[in-house]
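Key idea: predict the complex, not the pieces.
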Amino acid sequence: MSVPLMTIPDEAPPPARATAVSARGLRKTYGTGDTAVHALDGVDVAVDRGAFTAIMGPSGSGKSTLMHCLAGLDTPSAGQVWLGDTELTRLGDDQLTRLRRQRIGFVFQAFNLLPALDARANITLPMQLAGTRPDRVWLDDVLARLGLSDRLRHRPHELSGGQQQRVAIARALLPRPDVVFADEPTGNLDSRAGAEVLGLLRSTVREMGQTVVMVTHDPAAAAYADRVVLLADGRPAGEIQAPTAASVIDALHQLGD
Amino acid sequence: MRTVLLANLRVHAARLVATVLAVVLAVGFVVATLVLNETSRATALASAGAPYLPAAAVVTSLDGAPVGVGALLADIPSVGAVAPSWQTVLPIEVPERAGVRTLLVGSVAEAPELRWEQLAAGSLPDEPGEIAVDRRSGAALGDVLTVLVPAPVDRTGGGSGEPTESSATVTGIVEFAGSPYAGLFGQAVVTPAQAQAWGAQEPSELRVAARPGVSPDTVLADVSAALSDRPVSVLSGAQQARSAADDLTRGHLQLTAVLLVFATVAVLVAGLVIANTFAVLLAQRTRELALLRALGATGAQVRRSVLGEALLTGLVASALGTGAGIGLAAAVAALSGGAEATIPLVGLSVPPWAVGAGLLVGTLVTLLAAAVPARVATRTSPLAAARPMDAAPLRSRPGAARVVLGLTLLLPGLGLLWIGADRAQVLVAVGGGVLAFLGVVLLAQLVIPVLVAGAGRLASRIGGIPAQLAAGNASRAPRRTAATALALLVGVTLTAAMVVGAATTRESSTAAIAAAYPIDVVVTQGSDPLPRSLAGELDAVTGVGASAPVSVAELVGPDGQPVQVFGIEPGAGGRAVRSEASFRLPEPGRAVLPPWLATAYGVASGDAVSFTTGGRALDAVVTIGDDDQSEVLVTADQLTATAPDAAPAAVWLRVADDADASATVERITQASGTAAPGSAVTGMLAQRAQLDGLLNGLLLVVTGLLAIAVLIALIGVGNTLALSVVERRQENGLLRALGLTRGQLRLVLAWEAALISGVAGVLGVAMGIGYGLTGVNSVLGGVGDVVPVIPWLQLVAIVVVATGAGLLASVLPARRAARTSPVAAIAG
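Result:
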C-alpha cells in the first residue's frame, strides 16, 4: 500500500485545517421497491483533520450507517467517500481491509477486544495483521497516556469496562491512523468511566492532533466534541460548533418537532 | 411444544444433515456387517451343508476310522436309504490335455433323495465306468478319462506295485462352486462301487434318508438308538450341515467379530459427532430457546422438544442407514460373487433382526448423544433472550475426578493389553484395549488442548497471525476441541491399528506360511525317469520364479539296508524353497537325515555318516532334518561323485509372487505332461493362495474403514468449525474491522481445522501402532512368531488424509464466516 501514514505534529494542530474524511451524495438503501428503506438518503459531510467530530441523531437516523460507510466497513449504495485523497468507494474488499488496518482506528461500544488475547496483544493486533512492528517509543507513550502500562498481561475479562475501552483506544491510536472512529464508546459504561473515556478521546485530539469521529446519542458525550453533525431520517439536519450538553439537547428537540 | 418441534424440524432440516449423515454411515456399517455375515452363513450352509441337508441323519465316525455300520442301518425299518461317502485322490489324464492332474473323487448317493450335486450338464454317474466332473478338471461331456489307480498299499509299507490303468466316461458336469474343497485341483463323483474299485478309503461318514412317510426325527431317534454303543456321532442332517458350515466360516466369523468391533467404534464416533451437532444446533438457537422459556415453557418442555427432535432425526436417519447398509452388502455380495472367493456369496440374506438392530442402534445413539446438549438447553435462562451473546471465554479445566477416573481406567487397561499381547489372550487384550481407550477419552480434555496449544505455538512460527489466532481459538473451548479431536482420533486410531495389524499379520503369516509350505510345486517322476532337460523347460514356464532339479540314487546305508539318497544343488535349492525355517537343505559335505532315520542309524547332528555303492563311499556329516522331512538329502555334486548314474527324480518349483497361482499350475502341468508323460504335479500352492486371498480381503476392508472414518471425521470437524463460526461471529467481525482480510479469516479457520485434525491424526497413529501391534500379538502370538511391521508410508498418509479432511471440512464454515460483513457481525 503506497498510502503514506499521516505525520502527526507534536504540537497543536495546524491552523489551516484540511479535510480528513468526506462524503458526497451518500445513499444506503436496504431492500427494493415498496419495502426499500433508505438508511442514508443523500448525505454530504466533511470531517476536519485534527478535530473531534460527533455524529448525532435519534435512533434510526442513520448515524451508525454513516460512520460504517465513512470507515470503509460498509459500502454505500450510491455516492462517494474519500479518506484524504483516497476514494474508498473505488476500493475492493481486500484493499479496504488493508486501508482499515493502516489508516483507520476503531473503538466500538462493546466487544472491542478479542477474549483470547491479552491487553498487549489486543493493542498490537492491527499492526500484526499488517505485518508491521509497533514503534516502541510511541507504544510506551500511548500506554502511559492511557494508564495501561501495568495492565498489559491482563485478559479482557480481567479488566473493567472502562479499562477495556482504554485498551481499545490504545489499539486505535497505535498505527497513527488518519481517523479514529468511535461508535457509542461510552454506551456500556457507567457515567464516571464514560467521562474518563471521553476525556481521553478529547485529549488525543488536543495533544496528539488525532482526528476522531464519534457516533453517539448521548448529548453529554457529544458536548466533548468540537463540532456536532446532526442527522435525521438519513439526511443532514444541521450542525453545532463548540457544543454544550444544553445546546445539543435543544437541537435534538428541534429535530423531534 | 409439538408445533414448535415440528416447525423447527421443517425449518432447520438442513442443519440436521450432519447428524443424519453420521447416523446413516454408522448404522449402514452395522447393518452391512450383519447382513454380510448372515449371507455368508447362508451361503456356507447352502454349499458346505448341501450334502447333509437332504439327509435325515448323518453318522460320523468319532475317531476317523471307518464307520462300517451301513448294513446295520439298512435293517432299521424307518431308514429309506443309506449313502456312504467314499473318497479318494487320483491322478487322471484328460484326452487332448497334457499331463496328469490330481482329482478329488467322491461317491454319489445311489438313492436319488440323498443326491445333492448340482448338475451343469449331463447326468450323474449311474454305473461303474461313468464319472461326473467339475469344470476345473478340464474334461468335457463324453470324454474318456484315463485313471491311474495306484496299487493297493499293503500294511508293511513296502512293495508298492505299478499303478493300473482304468478308464471312465464323463456323463455330467457338476457345479462345486462354494464347496469347501474347491481348491486348485478338480473334483469328480463316481458310483460307490467304482470309488471302491479305485481304492477309496472306507467311509467315515454315512448319510441316512427316511423311508417315505416316516418323519426324519423318527429316523434320527432309531439310528441313535441302534448305534448308541459305537464310537460314532449321530446328528440330524440340518445339524451336520450347520456344523460343516461353521467349520467353513469359522475364519469368517472371526472377521465378522472384528468388523462388529469396528462397527461399534463407528457408532461411538457417530455418537460424538451427533452430540457435537446438537450442541451446535442448540447454541445457534440459544435465544430462541430462551424466548420459549420466557413465554412460559418449562425446562422439561424444552428438553422434551430437543429430545423429540433427536428421536425423529434418529429414526429417519437409521431407516436410511439400514437401507444403505443393505445396499452396501448387496454390492459387496455382487462383487465377491464374481471373484474366485473361497465362499462366493449367493443372493442376499437380510435377517429381520439385523434391520431391527440397525434402527434401534441408530435411534438410541442419537437420543443418548442429544441428551447432554438437551440438558444444557434446559438450563437456558429466559434472560438469555434479551442479553447479547456472552463473550466470556472461561477456560474450563477438567475436574480432578475425571483425571483420576481416566487414569484408573487407562493404567490397568494398558496392563491388560500388555498381558493379552504377551500371553496371546485375545479377550484380555480386547478388554484392556477398551479400558485404555475409555481412559484416553476421559483424559482427552486434559491432553488434547495441551497438544493443540503446543502445535499452535509451532504453527504460529509458520502461519503468522492467522495460525496464532487459530491456536488461541482452538484452546479456548477445550471441551469442544477435545470432543472433535476425539471423534477423529477414534477413526484414525482404528485405521492405523488396522494398517499396522494387517502389515504385521501379512509379514508374520508370510513367514509362517513359507515355513509351513516351503515348496510351491513339486513335479515328480511317474513310471519313467524324468528327462534331464525338464528342470530347464519348467524354469521357462511363465509364472515360475525358480526351479531346482532333484536327483536320486539307491545307496546302502550304515545299517546295510538300501536307502534312496536325493541330491540337490544347494544354490538352486535355496532359491526354489521359500523358507528354510522348517526345511533343511544340505551344505557341501553334509547329509540331511530325517529324524527317524538318524535314530535308526544311531547318529546325532555332527556325527559322520557313510553311504556306499559299488565300492565307493559317500562320507558326510549329519544334519538332522525337520520332522516333516522324509528323505536323505545331500548336495548334487556329492551324490553324482559317488553314484554317477543318479537320475532326475523331481523338480522343485517356486511360483513368482505376482503370478496367477492357478494358471501357473495349469501351465506347469501342461509342460511337464508334454516333456515327461506320467509325471505328477503336486504342491502346497493352493493353501498359500487361499491364505493370501484372505489377507488381501482384510486389506480391502481396511480401505473401506479408512473411507468411513474419514467421512465421519469430516462431519465432526466441519461441525465444530461451524459452531466456532457461530459463536465467534462478533469476534470475527471485529477482526475484519481491524484489518483481517477475508483470505486471512479463512486461513484462521483452516489453521484451526488443521491443528485439531493434525493433533488427532498424529496421536491416533501413535495409538494405532500400539493397538495394532498388541492386537496382532494377542491374536497370532499363540500361533507363531510375530514379525512387527510398521508401514510408515501408509501411516504418514493417514495423518495427511486426516489433516486434509479437516482442512476440507473448514471450507464451508470458513466461506460463511468470510461472507459475513463486519458491520453485521459487530452489530450482533
